[in-house]
Design a protein that fits this description.
The complex is a heterotrimer.
Chain A (H helix, E strand, L loop, with lengths): L5 H19 L41 H37 L1 H15 L3 H12 L3 H10 L2 H16 L2 H8 L4 H37 L11 H7 L9 H28 L9
Helix pairs in contact in A: 1-2, 1-10, 2-3, 2-5, 2-6, 2-8, 2-9, 2-10, 3-6, 6-8, 8-9, 8-10, 9-10
Chain B lengths: L1 H28 L3 H6 L5 H10 L6 H13 L13 H36 L4 H15 L2 H15 L11 H32 L1 H8 L4 H38 L5 H10 L3 H29 L1 H6 L1
Helix pairs in contact in B: 1-4, 1-12, 5-6, 5-8, 5-10, 5-12, 6-8, 7-8, 7-10, 8-10, 9-10, 10-11, 10-12, 11-12
Chain C lengths: L3 H17 L13 E5 L14 H4 L2 H4 L4 E4 L8 E4 L2 E7 L2 E6 L13 H7 L2 H5 L8 H4 L3 E6 L4 E6 L6 H4 L10 H7 L1 H6 L7 E7 L3 E6 L12 E6 L3 H9 L5 E3 L6 H5 L5 E6 L2 E7 L13 H10 L2 H9 L31 H10 L6 E7 L6 H14 L3 E7 L2 H4 L6 E7 L8 H6 L6 H4 L9 H12 L3 H18 L2 E3 L4 E6 L3 E3 L14 E3 L1
Parallel strand pairs in C: 1-10, 1-11, 14-15, 14-16
Antiparallel strand pairs in C: 2-3, 4-5, 5-7, 6-7, 8-9, 9-10, 11-18, 12-18, 13-16, 13-17, 19-20
Helix pairs in contact in C: 12-14, 13-15, 19-20
The chains are: A mainly alpha, B mainly alpha, C alpha+beta.
Chain lengths: 279, 306, 525
């Protein structure tokens, strides 16, 4: 086995920190994420002149602590991305399994759905649905879950098809194993590695999608916040109070970067044959 | 062979019908567009006038039927917002998006693909790491943020490039770079994987064993094989490009279809949204059909398999 | 010390200055063009269907009013000057107007009484099925509009109405050409509008751009600019960069917090006006939804007393505008304004808590519908207010929605709105009676938020009929009390409009948001 590169270590450390911070939540600052201080608006971070020692990363336009904001944003962005990824992966793989299992017209119809989804840029679908049905957390999570399901479906269908055609699978069935057992014990492990790699790709894409939607005003809505929302809100302030958007931007960047590095490593590690399939 | 193509085309048509129905269902079930259009203080009379004018009072199925026929014949109707033919409104925007898209897409391919190939050849080197880090950078930076940063740097501080809008070739540079960054990053990463996979293949090793030169192996054996999955990804990336255009065109006030979509959606200009979604879908579906065709040409096995 | 070149320039400059007097107003060929970056353009440019802040700033460049408010001679614009009408006089219920002769529309036809009458006619504004139905609100009390000659016409009202000329300074006073309007219809007119203004519309694509070109047959002489392009640039960063790098001559809608930074750039002049308009919110006072806790006036009073609006306005606007402590007691109303009027519901957290305790309210969530980016700082203020309400135990969720259709969709407990105050300049008629009265959309539309009380209606009737100042002021105070007793809404602050322009321009920004690129309001220097 090749030695583990320092970049990988860095990526893993970042992800661990991000998850840790998101889980323990707001213990780093006495301020709440929506607690305002109108007398301390737009305070710069601690290392700049004019800063307020109570707010090490500065404050936003209504005097909220950036540490608290970024942590709350991180919690939301990670939750949305995790929820979205899980929904998409479960739903998509299920579709893939079903179509590989039943073949025939079921497969045709499901694959047509896949084609349909793939034929429209996803942001177009979310934009239309969010704008027309109004923004709610439920709809938002569902939409994030819909993101990338077609990729999971295609992927798992392909892997399942090739797995159940393997001689050993046929042998197991010949030996009298039920379908459930076949899929659970023999096919799923085969699919799993492919899915894990796909997850590392979908996850950062959902974070970025949420960011783009926030820019268009269709992301997470106040009083909730997300990294994308803070970033989008701070954009008018880039030349006067850069810290509002740079902190969340940096976190988005680091998380996305780390996830991609880990994903690449997993892909190389788990199955070289997957490289071309997962995109 | 013929069956393969007939099936492909049939599926394309069905997919499009799906899209049409989806759009119809979404747009007609989500609320009353009239109030949004006549404004804040509309009187009931005003609302009524609009309803009749746009025949929103017909039963839903009649609207649906009328609508499928219209879409199939390319009549996208009239914009609620400014009373012009949707097809005209879209038509005057399409060239702008095409210019921007083409420019940034070619740029992305010219940068992304060679970068990916080099990274694969020099696998594990600092160079590889550097290219991949840059690729992820392009991919991980939200493009509206990159766009605004560029405006602040190149238009406000340095005053080298115009800040927004159209007019000269200079106007194209920042939006194109913003849009291309993401695609180039994805392409580089993908090319690298595709190349690595091919380089691992037995026939490459066999060629090496036979004494075929290094560059010869790369150019004549590896590249053609790696290009097969690459064609697919380029086709699929078209969607991401359109998606990116929605944001980039808004940042740079570029008068393309992405910007049009944002304004049409927020003012609920149903006819325009329909037209845009359909045209984008048709573009994507056709592009995928072309990709399938190319794929079939590049790799005869696909035709047989299907 | 001057270098030779500078001396040369000075001499040239002096020469040019001395020649100004003898030159024709502006020479068509060498007039400069202007690029103006705006945040948005309204989809329709008809005078009434197109009412919005984003169109008002452009309107006076291609439409002319019958009567003009002169902000040059009077800061408050309370001088009514002739524009398309040169004379007006009142006899009882009838006003007679005399029009300027020789005024041409952009299509070359002459403006006559026929056009002015059509502009104010029932078929266009106040009949059974008018072309621009919102005109009804502005023409309340109209009985007859008729031409009495080629250049004279009469307006007859139900009761003597001293304010007709002031009303014609607003949207209804923009004269449209009857023949062209009827030919193309109201919708097409809104896309290709024609007026008598100093510029004519040559291109209009609502999501993108509006181009105006000098109309050299303008009755006031050729305008100073050859072509004005109003381009939509949604991102503030791009507007700012474009102004600093001189791509744009003007930009509008500068976020308050960025004003100072923008002003630091060389050659950039920031203009700010207090507009005759108040961002506000309405309480839904009706039992719709059925369990609406806001039907209890005490809860509404509590919410008002919980808001520290002075601190919010100070923080968000750096003292450039004010919160009116008593609604309708606005400074622009001159004699009606009373700085010592008692504040019935001042900021008082303890009082607010006590009021909440008197109600049956148990922390149910109240929904506040807000239109996205409708007024500068509205959303920021909302976020602060939501916290201040939380302090007194009131749970409000501000929902930012894309457009009014969504805002109007029930259920909601609070709703954003903005109220203009200048329909009758110097008189509280619009915010107090026109906008809340029995015919206002706020009390009649499907999304109405209150039912005027008998007390309010009685006081309103008196106010509407009062003509003498003393009677009117008394009636106004009574009406205002009746409104405050219900407190169906809350006025937040006087709007601030801003814009910035490059060096070499002298510009006066009008408080109604108009950006006149001609006359005494605009000059190249």
């Amino acid at each position: 086995m090749k030695r583990i590169s320092p970049i990988l270590v860095f990526a893993v450390v970042i992800l661990v920190i991000a998850v840790f911070v998101a889980i323990v939540g707001n213990i780093f600052t006495p301020h709440g994420m929506s607690q305002q201080n109108l007398l301390a608006r737009l305070k710069p971070p601690a290392f700049m002149s004019g800063s307020n020692p109570n707010f090490p990363l500065g404050t936003d336009r209504i005097g909220r602590d950036m540490v608290a904001r970024v942590i709350a944003g991180l919690q939301m962005s990670l939750s949305v991305a995790i929820a979205g990824t899980i929904i998409g992966a479960v739903f998509g793989s299920l579709i893939g399994f079903i179509s590989a299992h039943f073949r025939g017209w079921v497969e045709e119809v499901l694959m047509m759905l896949v084609d349909f989804q793939a034929s429209l840029p996803f942001i177009l679908i979310t934009l239309t649905l969010l704008a027309f049905f109004g923004n709610s957390m439920t709809l938002f999570i569902i939409l994030m879950g819909l993101f990338g399901w077609e990729k999971y479906a295609r992927l798992s269908r392909g892997v399942v098809l090739s797995a159940i055609n393997q001689p050993y699978a046929k042998a197991i069935v010949a030996l009298g194993a039920g379908n459930g057992r076949l899929y659970l014990k023999h096919v799923l492990p085969n699919v799993a590695s492919a899915l894990i790699v796909q997850v590392t790709l979908t996850f950062p894409q959902i974070i970025l999608l949420e960011t783009s939607l926030s820019f268009l005003g269709l992301g997470i809505q106040a009083p909730q916040t997300s990294l994308g929302q803070i970033l989008g809100d701070g954009r008018d302030y880039l030349s006067t109070a850069w810290w509002i958007s740079v902190w969340p931007g940096l976190v988005i960047f680091l998380v996305t970067l780390s996830m991609s590095i880990v994903g690449d490593w997993l892909r190389d590690r788990l199955d070289p044959m997957l490289r071309a399939r997962t995109t | 062979m013929t069956r393969f193509w007939v099936l492909k085309i049939l599926r394309t048509v069905l997919t499009l019908w799906f899209v049409v129905t989806f759009v119809f269902v979404v747009l007609r079930t989500s609320g009353d567009p009239v109030v949004a259009l006549v404004g804040a203080d509309a009187t009931p009379e005003e609302v009524e006038q609009f309803r009749q004018l746009w025949r929103l009072d017909d039963p839903l199925w009649i609207q649906y039927f009328r609508y499928v026929v219209q879409m199939a014949t390319g009549q996208f109707g009239i914009s609620y917002r400014d009373g012009r033919e949707v097809i005209d409104i879209i038509a005057e925007r399409v060239p702008w998006t095409l210019i921007l898209g083409l420019f940034s897409y070619i740029g992305a391919i010219l940068i992304g693909v060679p970068a990916g190939i080099i990274a694969a050849i020099k696998r594990g080197s600092t160079f590889d790491n550097l290219i991949m880090a840059t690729a992820v950078f392009g991919f991980a930076l939200p493009n509206f943020f990159l766009g605004i940063l560029m405006i602040l740097l190149f238009s406000l501080s340095l005053q080298w490039l115009p800040s927004s809008g159209t007019g000269t070739v200079w106007h194209l540079i920042m939006p194109a770079i913003t849009l291309a960054t993401f695609t180039a990053g994805t392409l580089a990463r993908f090319t690298r994987s595709a190349m690595l996979e091919v380089l691992d293949k037995l026939y490459i090793r066999a060629a090496a064993a036979k004494g075929v030169g290094y560059w010869k192996r790369i150019i004549f054996h590896a590249l053609p094989n790696a290009s097969i999955p690459l064609v697919t990804i380029i086709g699929l990336n078209l969607g991401e490009l359109i998606g990116g255009a929605i944001v980039v065109e808004t940042v740079f006030a570029w008068p393309g279809v992405g910007r049009l979509l944002v304004t049409a959606v927020s003012s609920r200009d149903l006819a325009v949204v329909q037209g845009l979604v359909l045209i984008m879908a048709v573009t994507m579906v056709l592009a995928n059909l072309v990709v399938d065709l190319l794929y079939g040409l590049l790799d005869p096995r696909i035709r047989v398999q299907n | 010390m001057f270098t030779r070149r500078e001396v040369g320039n000075l001499i040239l400059g002096a020469g040019a200055l001395s020649m100004v007097g003898s030159l024709p107003k502006a020479n068509a060929a060498d007039r400069p063009s202007l690029n103006i970056a705006v945040d948005n353009l309204w989809a329709n440019m008809a005078t009434i269907n197109g009412i919005s802040t984003t169109s008002r700033r452009i309107f006076p460049n291609f439409y002319d009013n019958l009567v003009d408010r002169d902000y040059i001679k009077d800061e408050n614009g309370l001088i009514f000057a002739p524009k398309l009408a040169t004379k007006w006089e009142q006899k009882g219920n009838i006003w007679t107007f005399t029009l300027r002769e020789g005024v041409k529309f952009h299509d070359g036809t002459e403006m006559t009484a026929e056009d002015a009458v059509f502009t104010l006619s029932p078929e266009r504004l106040w009949g059974a099925k008018p072309f621009e139905p919102r005109g009804k609100t502005f023409t309340a009390g109209f009985k007859r509009v008729e031409a009495t000659g080629k250049y004279t016409f009469e307006i007859e009202t139900e009761r003597p109405d001293p304010n007709i000329p002031s009303k014609l300074t607003g949207y209804i006073g923009f004269v449209v050409p009857k023949k062209y309007y009827m030919e193309v219809g109201v919708d097409a007119f809104g896309q290709k509008p024609i007026g008598t203004g100093p510029y004519k519309v040559t291109t209009f694509r609502s999501g993108e751009i509006m181009v105006l070109e000098a109309f050299d047959d303008y009755w006031g002489g050729p305008p100073p600019v050859k072509q004005i392009s109003w381009k939509i640039v949604p991102e503030f960063a791009a507007r700012m960069a474009g102004l600093v790098s001189k791509e744009f001559d003007f930009i509008v809608n500068i976020p308050t917090d960025q004003e100072a930074a923008l002003e630091k750039y060389q050659g950039v002049t920031l203009k700010r006006v207090l507009a005759d308009n108040y961002p506000a919110f309405a309480f839904n006072t009706r039992p719709d939804p059925e369990d609406n806790p806001l039907v209890d006036a005490n809860l509404r009073y509590a919410m008002v007393q919980a808001i520290d609006m002075n601190a919010i306005v100070q923080a968000l606007f750096n003292g450039t505008t004010e919160h009116p402590a008593v609604p309708f007691n606005f400074k622009e109303y001159g004699k009606f304004y009373d700085p010592n009027l008692p504040v019935k519901l001042p900021y008082d957290v303890a009082a607010a808590k006590a009021l909440v305790a008197k109600t049956k309210y148990k922390g149910e969530k109240l929904l506040w519908h807000i239109t996205r980016q409708y007024y500068p700082n509205y959303e920021a203020a909302a976020e602060i207010m939501v916290e201040q309400w939380r302090e007194v135990g009131i749970n409000v969720e501000a929902q930012i929605l894309d457009n009014f259709e969504l805002v109007y969709r029930r259920p909601y407990h609070l709703m954003n709105m903005s109220m203009s105050s200048d329909f009758i300049p110097g008189d509280p008629y619009q915010p107090l009676w026109l906008d809340w009265g029995p015919t206002a959309s706020r009390s009649t539309a499907t999304w109405k938020t209150w039912d005027p009380t008998p007390e309010y209606l009685a006081a309103g009737k008196k106010f509407d009929q009062a003509i003498e100042f003393e009677d009117r002021k008394k009636a106004y105070l009574e009406l205002s009390d009746a409104w405050q007793k219900v407190t169906p809404g809350y006025y937040m602050w006087k709007s601030v409009y801003n814009c910035a322009h490059r060096a070499g321009i002298e510009f006066k920004f009008k408080p109604n948001g108009e950006m006149r690129i001609y006359g005494d309001y605009f000059k190249f220097v």
